[in-house]
Write a structure and sequence with these properties.
Number of domains: 2
Distance between the termini: 50 Å
CATH architecture of the largest domain: Alpha-Beta Barrel
Structural class: alpha/beta
Bound molecules: zinc ion
Number of helices: 13
Shape: globular
Low-confidence stretches: none
Radius of gyration: 21 Å
CATH class of the largest domain: Alpha Beta
CATH superfamily of the largest domain: Metal-dependent hydrolases
Amino acid sequence: MTLYIKNAEFIDWESLEFTKTNIEVIEGKKGGIRFFNTMPVLSADSKIIDAKGKYVTKSFGCGHHHIYSTLARGMPAPAKAPQNFVEILKYVWWHLDKNLDLEMIRASALASALYCAKNGISFVIDHHASPFAVEGSLFTIKEAFDTIGLSCLLCYEISDRDGEKIRDKGLEETRNYLVAGNPGHVGLHASFTVGDTLLEKAVALAHEHDTGIHIHVAEDLADQDHCLKTYNKRVVQRLFDAGALDLGRSVFGHCLHLSEKEKKLLKNSKAWVAQNIESNLNNNVGLMGYKGFGDRIMLGTDGMHSDMLRSAKAAFFVGQGTEGISFPGIYDRFRNIHRFTRENHFRGDGDNNLVILDYNTPTNMNKDNFLGHFVFGIDSCHVDSLISSGKLIVENKKLVSASEEDILSFAREMGTKLWEKLT
Ligand SMILES: [Zn+2]
C-alpha cells in the first residue's frame, strides 16, 4: 500500500519554505517522500489523506526520555518526603525502578509510545532502568515501540548503585541488544554511581559497537561534589579522561553545573547535550542556560511526559532569562535531534517521518513568521496525524497501528500492580 497526502501545505523543517503540494510517502527506514503538483493515477490499494487546510511537516523527536517512569503518574507518596536531588532518586525513582518487571516495562513502553505518537513524535532516545528486570528489558521496549510503529534508540542505564551483579547484567543486556543489530547507546546512570571499572568497560563496549555513551552529567551539584571528592576531578574531565568524549554518538543529559573548562571540552568534542528544563525545574537542581556549549544541544523530556512542543516552550520561556534564547535558537534546539540522527547515521528519522497539523490559526502563517507560531501557537493538540517511517500511525487524532484502549487498560493494570509493590 502506498500512502499519499493530497492538498498539503508542506513546511520544510530546515528552510521553513511553505509549498502547496501533493506528497507520495515511501515506506521503510530507507524510504522518503516525493512531491507532485497534480495527483498521479493511483492503484486501488493506495491510501490517500486529504490535508486540505492543514500543514504537513517533519515529525518530532525526543532526545532524552525515561519510559520506565510512565506508571509513576499518581503513584503513592514516597516513605519520606525528599529534601534534595539525591533523596528524590533514592525515595522516588530508585524505589520505583527496582519494582518494575518485564510486563510493567512493556506497559510503560507501549503507553509512552502511544503518547509520543499522538504528540507527533516518531523518534525517541530512551534511557532505561529496572535493576531487578534487566535481562530482556531493552528488547521488551523495542518490541513495544515496533508495535506502535515508532523508531527508538535505547540504552540501559548501567550503574554500580545496586552492586556488581546487577551492574554486569546491565553490561550484558547492552551487549546483547547491540550484537542483535539494534540501534542503541551504552547507557550509564551518572558519574556518582559509576565506578572507574564500569566506566572503562562502558567506553570499551561503546567503541566495540561504534556507538556512544548516554549518561546524566552534572544534573545536580552533588554529582560534581562526589566526583571532586572521589576522583579529584570534575565530571566532564573524568568522562574526557575515560575517552567518552571521543565517541561520536554520545548523549550527555542535563550538563547543568559545569565549569567554563568543561563547557569547552564538550564544545570541542563530538558529544551532544540533551536539555530537560521541566525536569530541572521539578527537581529544583538549578537553571544554568547553555552559553558556551556550541550548537550540539537537543531537547528531551526526562520522562516527565511525551510532548516535545511543550518541552520547547518551557525551554524558550526559561531560556530567555538564563541565556537570552531567540525564536530561531529554540527551534534549532527542538529540531537538533534530526541533525544528531543524520550526523550519526541512525535510521528511522528520515524524510518519511511526518506530522499533519490541524492548526486553524487566527492570524496568517508563512515562512517569515512561522517561528512566532511555533513558540506561541502550535501545540500538541494540533497534531492530527503522524506518519513514522512512511507508515500511518495516528490518523485524525486516533492511533491506528494498535488499540489505544487495550494499551491504556493494560497500563492501568500494571500500574496498580506496581503501586501495590511500592507501599
Ligand atoms: Zn534522565
